[in-house]
Amino acid sequence: MTGISEIYPSDRRSLAEVDALLAAEGIRRDPHLDYICALRDDGGTIIATGSAYKSTLRCFAVSDAHQGEGLLGTVLSHLMEHELLRGYASVSLYTKPKSAKFFGDLGFYEIASVDGLVFMENEREGFASCLARFERETAAFCAEKGMERPAADETAAIVMNANPFTLGHRALVERAARENALVHLFLVSEDASFFPYRVREQLVRAGIASFPNVVLHASGPYIISSATFPSYFLKDDATVSRTHAALDIAVFRRIAKALGIGRRYIGEEPFSETTAIYNDVMQEALPKSGVACVVVPRYEVKGQAVSASDVRERLKHADFSKIAELVPEETLAFLKSEEARPIIEKLKAAEDVRHH
User: Which of 110, 201, 240, 253 could disulfide-pair with 289, CB 3.0 to 4.6 Å?
Assistant: First the structure.
């Protein structure tokens, strides 16, 4: 048996072997991977594999002929070392329920589980620490504003990516702020978008500055973006959306309990069928968790629903006259600034700017 080696995107033959090994486990190679490794036998055939995307581990498989030889542990140890070398001490993974005990024995702890999928991390108190941070941020915010913590039925939550922050996002926040005493705005902090988190946070803070009852939180790794979600386990887009929503709700249920959140506001989705399915699941499942789900119609300009994907499309073609109708002044000023130039150049070079 040879050592573990990296598989590069240009190595089509090895990638085909990896894909075959994964297929035997009933999974597909995830499109969001930035590192793939493989363990070969003495003849050079790949007999075990594992991958990573930023701080998440995924796509594990071991050949049937080599089950029970400890190869999965070898691959996992290699990936953990690799993650540590690139600065990720806190690591999470997704696995099927049948493998959860194995990863548990190797030091991973369950965060949430849904049918066919378990979300785990390597820090026993990782999620608890994140909840504690949300609580500290909320306490500090309320103290600064001189306000008492309201009851759950007056406390709402919004989750957004804001890639970038639009008038539609602002309208959603405005509605929640008007109808509740306190609003928790969770901004997806993973950098898997054209606009990096630092910029998105800057634009959101500027865009919500006039709302005195909205506290902004960086989501951390627990509010799961579409890039982080392990779609490779699932057969089709509809199943991906439903399972993603179910896992999101399982995690959010714990956040809502910790912070006393009684409502979650989501935007109506007229464009994406997969997001519409996601919303349907949330409307059905959230109330069962004691959290009301409020669907807000999309903000419209001249009869057209505003979307961040439309803004990105307009940016790709430098259509600033139209963009000015879709975003707050603060977002427009940034988009016209020199700081935005690298983002705009990246958009111009991309084939697809809508589905990010």
Answer: 253
